[in-house]
Each structure stands twice: as structure tokens, then as C-alpha cells.
Amino acid sequence: MDLIAHGLCEAGRLIASGDALVFAAAGRSLAISVAAVLVAGALAVPLGVFLADKAFPGRALLVLTLRGGMGMPTVLVGLLGFALFSRRGPLGGLDLLYTPEAVAICETLLAFPIVVSWTHAAVSGLDPRYAETSRTLGARSLRRRWTLAKEVRLSLVLALLTAFARCFSELGIAMMVGGNIKHRTRTLATATALETSRGEFARGLAMSLILLVIALLVALVAAALTRVREREAR
Amino acid sequence: MKIHWPKGAVPGRVVVVCGVLCLVLTMACGAADPKGRAVLRLATTTSTRDSGLLEVLVPLFEDQEHCRVDVVAVGTGAALRLGEGGDAEAVLVHAEAAELQFMDSGFGVRREPVMYNRFVLLGPPDDPAHVARLRAASALRRIAEGRFRFVSRGDDSGTHKREQYFWEQVGGRPRWPDYVESGRGMGATLIMADELDAYVLSDEGTWRRMAERLSLREIVVEGEEMRNPYSVMVVAPDRTGRDRRLADLFADFLISEKAQRLIQDFTVGGRHLFHPLRLKR
Asked: CATH homologous superfamily of domain B34-117+228-276?
């Protein structure tokens, strides 16, 4: 219990004193995960709607595979990323290993199946009359799918938030591909791991508390945004 | 929203069985050994575990004293913290200054130097800074002056502490952009140095184990200051709330002739890694 109290105090102190390293790590974590989620979202939402709207052979299998992909271990993605970006790997020439960009690319992979699966599930759950109505109204498939996506926007926000939460708190990729380099690729999660291995348990706890607070703030902002949207829609 | 639990959804019997199961599991996972053996919690550094030395020594001790040893391998800093908090009865680490402080603070009641291995300065095969014939501290200075790449553990580990000691020897570490702090274990740091074509200070054990996969080579190995001594410490009973008997026996064991011979004969890839400090000649 002592440790938890200590951690809380330390978290307060770190925030109040504006600890440069912690704030830089937090900013880095945030930038990387937001970039990953935006890229993943731009690709995954259209695919999710498409998968729900259009029947084709092998669709069920694809959906199932993507759902399975939601449980992808971050260490596995990290290892794959390392194999790709390593000097001896196929993309070694890009010199991306141990950069925030490489972490963001791998986290996009992590976020992608989550957003696809959630979008697909949300659109599939819609009353089939939506699609039919817009079809009879003569809406072309692109336009129809846009309508469908708009119909489930709340679920989409939740899908993006879930993906963000996964990316923001993940450790495996940031360690393997980012390398936890001070001033360059250290994120809140890897900083927490470092403090823990150092035996600075209170500091480690403080960092994860800060991580939790930021995740909460992001959820709040998303909630506020969707609320405004809902009101406007009415 | 209110949640309505349907009546009879979870029969009382199930609850009781689950409760008993939880209790049994907790007991099984707790400090007590299912075979009734006494348990020694040993906090140590990853280097002793990763080299495989503990897998030779620990089973022997377990058989000899009919006990079980739970090894927690973490960084030196964390290992000392575990001892300080009373979450381990014995600590086996390599950081002399920190060990002495640990004893002075009353966290430890006995300290026995056991063995040493060596640090090695590794670097790119072509040694761009031309430091191969220097001693470690001067080599580091020249690497800094030439602004060559260097990967540091940056985690307060025994190896990081030694690096900091070398920097102190040459009047402090200059700042340059290619000095990179990995904040990770030795293995991950070696991989990083390999990827970045950088210089790096390593313990010999981890280096030997990984040498085959890396393109780094040994640059500086000589010198008394590259010695890396390990000590075992018995944690004060008022910290752990447990008997110190087993921890004392473990310390006795590590400095016994039998264990010291095993340490001397232990090899990885045909090389001796640890050198006993208590072997009578």
C-alpha cells in the first residue's frame, strides 16, 4: 500500500514539476498512437464497411481472420517489425529501425484488425432496411457505404478509441522496434518498464498513472466530440 | 443502469467450489512449497541467469539442503530493491558500491564475494575510433572526442555503473548526439549496438552467448578495471520477516569448494566465464 501512495505522490510531483523526460515520453506516446490510429482508421473503416456490405466468397474467413488479429501479441508484431526493419531485413535500407516512425507503422498493423472488425460488426448489426432503402433510392455503392458508415459513427469512435488504447499502452513494439532510446523513442510504456527494472517502483507506477490519465482524457475528448455531433445531427 | 441478477443463476454450490479452488490455488502459489520444502527467494541480475550458471548451481543446492530456490532475475537496482523491501532473502549482484551501501544501511547482514567475470568493450569490426590498444577509460574518451556512436545501457545496472565510473575517470562524459541510451537489458542493448554499428560496454557472459549472431568484435578486454565481481548478500531477517538460515546456507554453498570448482569449470562456447574468488589453491 505504501508503494501505491508513494506512486501517487510521485505522479503528482512529476506532473507538477513538468518533468521534461516524462512529458516528452507522453507526447511521443500520444503522437505515435494517434498517427497509427488515424492511418489504420483511414484504411480499416472503408474495408470494414465494404466487408459488411458486399458478399463474396471467402468473406467469412477473412472476417474471422481479422477478428483473430485483434488478439495479436504486441511482441509478435514487434518481432516482425524488427525482422523487417533490421539492417539484415528486407526493409533495412530505409534506416527506420529505432525510430518513432517504425513504431507507428507497426502499431498501425496492431490497430488495423481492431478497427476493421468493429466497423464490420457495427454495420452488419444495422437494420438491413438501411442498405435496401438507399439501394432502392438509387444510391451508388460508394455513397450508400458512406451513409452506412455515418449511421454507425458512434461505434466507429469506440473502435478508434479501443485501437488507440491498445497502441498507447503497448510495450512489445515500442521496445523491439523503438528500442526505448532516451530522447528519441522512449514512450511512457517503455519508460515504465525501465523504471521497474531499475527498481524505481514508485516512479514506474507514477508513469503508468500518467498513461492512464491521458487515456482517460482522450476518451473524454472523444465523448465530447461525438456528443456535439449528435446534437448537431438532431 | 441497474443490473438484475437472475435468481438462481449461480448456484451456491458453484460459489463454494470456486472459493475453495481459489484458496487452494493461492496456497499452492504462495511461499509454501507443495512438497513441504523450505523456500529461498533469491534476487539476482539477468547476467547470472542468462549465462546458465545458476542452472548448474541452484539444483545442486536444492538437492543438498532439500529446499526450493525461487530465482527472480532483474536488474541490479531492482534486485537490491527487492532485498531492501524484504521480498528476497538473498541477493546475488555485481555492483560493489551499491552493495556496500546496502550493507551499511542495515538491509544486509552478511556479504560474501563469490566470483568475478569481465567487462568487454565491443565495437564495429573496423574499429573506426582506433581505440583497440587503449585502456577502457581512454578508449571511451577517444570515442567521445571523435563523436562515434556509443550505446549505453542507461539503466543503473552494474554494467551501466561501470561505464559511468569510466567516464568519471576521464573527467565526465561529454555530450554528443550519437551517445544513445537504450534503457534496456544487455542482450537488447548488444543487438542495438550491432544494428547501429556502435561501440558498447558489455559483460563477457552475455557477449559470449550472443557473439555468433552479432558483427561486433572485442575492442578492449584488458585491465584490472574490467573485472566485474559478484557478491552474495544475506538480507536482514527484520526486513524479510523470515529465518535467515537458508540464505546463510546458500552463501556458505556459493563459497564452498564444491561450488567454486563448478564456477571455475563452467564454460559457454568453450570459454570460461566466471572466475571463483574463494578457491584455495
From this structure: Periplasmic binding protein-like II (3.40.190.10)
Burial (CB < 10 A; 0-12, 13-18, 19+), residue B142, is middle
Model confidence at A112: pLDDT above 90: yes
CB contact (8 A) between residue A98 and residue B82: no
Give B79's contacts in chain A (Cβ within 8 Å).
199
Substitution target from A176, A197, A201 for chain B, most B beta carbons within 10 A: A197
Q: How many residues does chain A have?
A: 234
Does any CB of chain B come closer than 8 Å to the CB of residue A181?
A: yes
Cβ distance A98 to B196 less than 8 Å, yes or no, reads yes
Query: Which of A180, A185, A192 has the highest number of chain B CBs within 10 A, making it the mutation to test binding with B?
Result: A180
List, for residues A21-66, the tens digit of each pLDDT value.
Answer: 889 999 999 999 999 999 999 999 999 999 998 889 999 999 999 9
Burial track A101-114 (b if 16+ CB lie within 10 A, e otherwise): ebbbbbbbbbbbbb
CATH 3.40.50.720 is the classification of domain B118-226: no
Q: Strand B179-181 to strand B150-152: parallel, antiparallel, or no bridges (unpaired)?
A: parallel
Q: Does A145 touch chain B (CB under 8 A)?
A: no
Q: Per DSSP, which regions of B79-146 are E strands?
A: 90-93, 108-123
pTM score of the predicted model: 0.79
Q: How do residues B207-266 score in pLDDT, each as one tens digit?
A: 988 898 899 999 999 999 999 999 999 999 999 988 999 999 999 999 999 999 999 999
Domain boundaries, chain B: 34-117+228-276, 118-226
Span A149-171, average pLDDT: 93
Do B98 and A220 touch, CB atoms closer than 8 A? no
Question: Which chain B residues are Cβ-neighbours of A98 within 8 angstroms?
Answer: 192, 195-196
Q: What are phi and psi for residue B236, nearest 5 degrees?
A: -55, 135
Are A112 and A77 a contacting pair, CB within 8 Å? no
Count CB atoms within 10 A of the CB of residue B113: 16
Interface test with B, best of A194, A196, A203, A205 (most B CBs within 10 A): A194
Inter-chain CB proximity A184 and B180 less than 8 Å? yes
In degrees, to the nearest 5, what angle opens at C-alpha A59 toward C-alphas A55 and A60? 115
Contact B244, B251 (CB under 8 A): no
Q: What is the pLDDT of residue B74?
A: 82
User: Pairing between strand B150-152 and B199-203?
Assistant: parallel
Which residue positions in chain B have pLDDT lower than 70? 1-33, 281
Top-level class of domain A2-233: mainly alpha
Find the closest chain B residue to A185 by CA distance. Answer: B182
Q: What is the pLDDT of residue B280?
A: 80
Distance (Å, whole) CA A153 – CA A230:
10
